[in-house]
Amino acid sequence: MRGSSGLGNSNPMSDEGLRHVLARHGYRIRFREHEWVECLIASAAESFAGTGLDRASALQAALAKCFPSRVARELFEVAVAAASRTLPVPADAETASPPEAHPAPAPSPSPPPPEPRARVPISSPRVAPLPPAARPVVRSGQDRVRALDELAILTDRIEESRDELAWSTAPRQRLAILAWICEARSHTDLFPEDLEIRESVARVSRQLTEIGKAFWPGSVTALQLQMQPSDLPRHLLGGSPATWARAAELAERALASLEYGDERRGHDPYGWSDSSALSPEPSQPSSILEGLVSAVEEAWGPLDRFAEPRNPEDLPDPVLYQRWVRELRWIRVQHVDPDRWARVMGRLRWWACRRNGPVQAEGRELEPTFRPERPWSRLLEQDGLQRPELPLPEELVEKARHRYDGKRLLLVGNRRDPVEQERLRRALPTTELEWRFPEPKLLDAVPRAVSDGAFDVVLGAVGLQSPGLDLALARGCRSVSVPYLRTNRGQPLACLRALARVS
Predict the structure, then answer these.
(1) pLDDT digits (tens, 9 = 90+) for 279-290
(2) For residue 113, what are the CA distances in angstroms to 12, 73, 109, 110, 229?
(3) Rounded distance, CA 222 to CA 232, Å?
(4) Starting from the edge strand earliest in sequence, which strands make up the sheet with 47-52, in order?
(5) Secondary structure string (H, E, C) spanning 324-372
(6) Alpha-carbon distances, residue 143 vs 28, 42, 45, 333 (angstroms)
(7) What residues are paired with 33 via a beta bridge?
(8) What is the DSSP track for 142-209?
(9) Which of 151, 168, 269, 376 lies deepest, with the highest CB count within 10 Å?
């Protein structure tokens, strides 16, 4: 690599000097070779990747990203030149072969180079230090602690968002899982050799893998250990990310775009298009769900672990399968266990993915965009049902009223639903409930209000795709020992369940 590590058209730099300067600022160079070569220049704070046909070209591509401006490149060259003059020259310097897999071709004849400029040592007052934008940041022990804290908060966010994820459509589930695992793996970019961080990321991966196998939304390639950001599906992310942090950002953006598009098309808050077909509602939705669970588990094995049935080759009767699909969609978002509902849905999706003609044909009714021409109740030959009054579970209401009598609650959400807000107020008449929505100063105002004793509990109704707001709320509340409860989209039933979780 000696003599071939220059940036662009700059004068060549020695490999030893280049590595010495990068290492002095906390950077390391790593290569990965397939049919081409990838080079990663990484510190604890950031990373830059480049590709090429050999190591030299891959390194140059990574350096071009690391030092994108002309000023940064010139300053780096000065530093490398100064370091090269002070480093000892290896005894075999003249005969050492470059580390590329294939030797580079001999350069073509070129006119004599111009008279070189005098190089000034990097310590000279004539040379300005690296500007802040180009100066590498070395991670401290506090940064490591912060990364572990963010991974712990991410684990809590995944667990407490599970109910909302269960009700969501498969495309939303897939993007949410993708965003979460990319967010977790971004910490391994910053701390590639930290075993505790890698184990924390592995725990998140196992957590999401279990959800994926139970709900069966489709493949999430980022959960595979050997995958790199550039391997992720471009059609989902809208681009090819170079880092896990960028992949997480693109996945969050894709999820937000999907939610916005669903809303414009008139879909419900979870992405389904059949809201108008749910009425009249079933009088006993829990009984219907338990009947489905019993029927599916009796012949094809338990649902408590994975969607894949006990005998993958044994498929249900298409007529029975269609009835299960319709019953499951009819009782959606009723007073039933969301996790059990999603596990049944996962097994039905698994069968639909088997490419079996009859079952696959009926599986089209599983698609979020499918909207029946008649209500589900009529398709199930249950006409004449009256829309029942479905009150909030009395047990949850009584527990919340007793525990939070006279308490001051703050709900921070990104949706305005006056009907649901009033319903929650009626359920908790003896509490002081205040609602706030994301504003520019919200992230500072909420922790300050909590620390001043203005609220006893904070409810976070931030959905699946507001990690920044969730992180700020979690940290702000924890700093003053005030409970922070995630309530998905702030629906009354979700709020009561969250309040009941507090011991």
Answers:
(1) 888 888 888 899
(2) 12, 20, 11, 8, 41
(3) 7
(4) 28-33, 37-42, 47-52
(5) HHHHHHHCCCCCCCHHHHHHHHHHHHHHHCCCCHHHHHHHHHHCCCCCC
(6) 18, 16, 9, 41
(7) 37
(8) HHHHHHHHHHHHHHHHHHHTHHHHHHS-HHHHHHHHHHHHHHHHHHHHHSTT-HHHHHHHHHHHHHHH
(9) 168
Give the other-Cβ count within 10 Å of 476's Cβ: 21
Asked if 292 and 399 count as a contact pair (C-beta separation under 8 A), the reply is no
Query: Which residue type is seen at 277?
Result: A
CA–CA dist 378, 269 (Å, integer): 24
Q: What is the DSSP string of 370-385?
A: ---SS-HHHHTT-TT-
Q: What is the pLDDT of residue 438?
A: 63
Residue 469: helix, strand or coil by DSSP? helix
The residues facing 484 across adjacent strands are 458
CA-wise closest residue to 177 among 164, 158, 160: 158
Query: What's residue 175's pLDDT?
Result: 95
Q: Hey, what are 319's tokens? A: 């007529």
Cα 313 to Cα 14, 331, 351, distances in angstroms: 62, 28, 10
Compute the radius of gyration of the chain from its Cα atoms.
Answer: 29
3-state helix, strand, coil in the chain (%, to 5): 50, 5, 45
Amino acid (1-letter code) at residue 293:
V
Q: pLDDT per residue over 177-189, tens digit each?
A: 999 999 999 999 8
Burial status of residue 389 (CB atoms within 10 A of its CB: 0-12, 13-18, 19 or more): exposed
Q: Which two tokens stand for residue 316?
A: 């249900």
